[in-house]
């Protein structure tokens, strides 16, 4: 009898430990726009490739959650299931309904659509309708703010600084009021989430968006974690050739680069500070760290200490935007990943 109790106790302990090992505090967020609209190659993915990606997630037991659920867990410091992924779709183009939705519905996968509401209000045939969005909301879709008319908020603010706060607030609140009225409980409100148009943000915009009660979402690539900047959550773009299956598999298995600090939180570049430098302080030495610009050019790296590195492009970055992306081998086939946005001003 005593032996049986001991065996049961050991089994329970083993089960708990195995469960804890299968939890994590990071996730990968995927970003899409159009589906099978190949006259827009930079923002579209073929349904053949998208189907391969979705079926890979299903067959390999990835946990697919809506973005709001992942963000809420991270903010509340709750553990996420192993291999957690979110599918996000920007702009609410009509091909979401005609192409992607049937596949996502078939596999019962949730997804998050960032809505810029002006073209829907004006009933553009290229965008979703409210009825289509309400239907998708019954089968896994949630909706979040992408501003009313999808403008260059950072650049517009530089051109017209006096009206900046009023202008940006109006863009965000007009969209929020409309989507909540039309889509009700399917809109992310706990927390409220905003995706920056064109993925562009700076320190001033982040502060304003935070004051309005939103989490901010960007477009530069990296996994997200409890230690992420919740005013600029990163995503992996899957369109424009960035989602081929070898890249897809690599990216959904990435880990956040273990960063202690980053020297420059802003993103704006002009002639006076282009090319920019960035100083990263790591939590542990990573001697195989490599950094690249968006066009794949290797960035010069200067190690200041065993864990602090200064990175700087040899040439000025080109308009309209660029990124510094740093990676290092983690464990097995996994890679650490970090990306910093730069907005290049004329």
TrEMBL record:
Keywords: Signal. SUPFAM superfamilies: Glycoside hydrolase/deacetylase (SSF88713). GO terms for cellular component: extracellular region. Pfam families: Polysacc_deac_1 (PF01522). Residues 83-346 form the NodB homology domain. GO terms for molecular function: hydrolase activity, acting on carbon-nitrogen (but not peptide) bonds. Signal peptide: none annotated. Its main location: secreted. This is Polysaccharide deacetylase.
